[in-house]
Inverse folding.
């Protein structure tokens, strides 16, 4: 049977925020097919690949993706017809060359990535392989990796910043089960603590509506209030803080950095960078943070190096906006020892091959990996398979709530039951 591409077709669908996004289906001569749909971020780093939007104010407030859809159905689809879907590297390079810009702004990273991922799904189906095994085979071509464990989930239980209701500065407050827990137990821990937090917020007559990523968006006064709620939520369960479960923060510091410094609600005066680093040292002394993501704005390399030197031995300093899944920025971070973990988002770089190449560099330098969703998601579960395939240290899929988040957690349960069946 022939694995050559017979057709490529895209359409416009809605993501979890009700914003248009692109979904692409690739059909092979063998009749096998693959479909992939694109997420979108609310907090978008300036070093990310560029998604293409229509900009037509008369339609979806300018957020339509008909231009991206058209690029797939005409330019990309015609170019890829009759190419072998099993040659992922050549297909991705062809699309990158066809675009010809440094950030994929001509055809759109959303157009290109939707095709790239759909090609991989079609090829996996053609070979009658589970997607995670096929992706592991692709990854193994550059870095042989056996599948020996499930990634540890990190649950965003309280949403602030651009994901919340405007009341908290820090973007995400996480609970992180211990890495020695089997995945299904880790999911149980996250869900039980999530429900415990809901009960506490309800008891306090606090708002317990949920934000973009399924975490609660309560009307609290300070970021410390949110941390205390999470700690209280853990205490109301059988799980022991610091043994079974830990805390993490996605600060997203670039979004509240001003000319005066880092302005948060926990005190009236802005923090200087030095004071802000000391603030995190104090937070860690009190809350034993396991993950600290984007604690410094994305262009302050010297202070990223400083905070990693001071706190990196005790916690993971995670680069998201700093790195943007970008190979050049990753290499700089490695050279300057600017962080100890990388957040990995396929749509920040724009093709599967480029994504895997970034992972290879990170792993070769012993950097922890966290495969991440975006705040605007679809029910596509590709990144769950991808995280297993590359043996990511952690996954970040949001709260254990909302269909587009739960779909990915449930996919990991399916994979776990295949690879590590419970006796």
């Amino acid at each position: 049977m022939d694995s050559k591409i017979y057709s490529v077709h895209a359409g416009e669908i809605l993501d979890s925020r009700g914003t248009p996004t692109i979904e692409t289906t690739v059909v092979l001569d063998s009749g096998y097919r693959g479909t992939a749909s694109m997420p979108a971020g609310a907090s978008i780093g300036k070093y990310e690949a560029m998604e293409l939007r229509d900009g037509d104010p008369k339609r979806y407030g300018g957020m339509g993706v008909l231009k991206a859809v058209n690029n797939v159905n005409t330019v990309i689809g015609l170019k890829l017809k009759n190419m072998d879907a099993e040659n992922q590297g050549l297909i991705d390079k062809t699309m990158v060359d066809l675009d010809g810009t440094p950030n994929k702004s001509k055809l759109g990273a959303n157009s290109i990535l939707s095709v790239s991922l759909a090609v991989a799904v079609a090829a996996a189906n053609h070979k009658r392989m589970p997607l995670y095994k096929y992706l592991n085979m692709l990854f193994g071509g550059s870095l042989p990796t056996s599948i020996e464990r499930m990634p540890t989930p990190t649950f965003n239980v309280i949403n602030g910043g651009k994901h919340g209701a405007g009341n908290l500065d820090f973007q995400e407050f996480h609970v992180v089960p211990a890495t020695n827990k089997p995945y299904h137990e880790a999911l149980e821990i996250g869900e039980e603590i999530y429900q415990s937090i809901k009960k506490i917020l309800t008891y306090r007559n606090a708002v317990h509506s949920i934000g973009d990523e399924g975490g609660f968006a309560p009307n609290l006064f300070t970021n410390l209030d949110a941390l205390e709620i999470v700690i209280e939520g853990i205490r109301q369960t059988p799980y022991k803080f610091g043994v079974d479960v830990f805390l993490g923060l996605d600060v997203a510091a670039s979004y509240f950095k001003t000319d005066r410094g880092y302005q948060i609600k926990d005190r009236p005066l802005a923090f200087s960078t030095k004071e802000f680093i000391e603030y995190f040292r104090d937070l860690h002394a009190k809350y034993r943070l396991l993950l600290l993501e984007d604690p410094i704005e994305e262009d302050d390399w010297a202070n990223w190096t400083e905070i990693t030197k001071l706190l990196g031995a005790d916690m993971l300093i995670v680069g998201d906006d700093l790195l943007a899944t970008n190979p050049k920025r990753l290499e700089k971070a490695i050279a300057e020892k600017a962080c100890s973990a990388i957040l990995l988002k396929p749509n920040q770089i724009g093709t599967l091959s480029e994504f895997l190449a970034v992972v290879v560099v990170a792993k070769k330098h012993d950097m922890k990996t966290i495969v991440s969703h975006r705040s605007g998601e679809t029910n596509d579960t590709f990144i769950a398979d991808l995280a297993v395939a590359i043996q990511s240290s952690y996954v970040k899929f949001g709260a254990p709530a909302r269909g587009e988040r739960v779909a990915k957690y449930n996919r990991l349960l399916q994979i776990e039951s295949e690879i590590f069946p419970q006796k």
Observations:
- The chain has 13 helices and 14 strands.
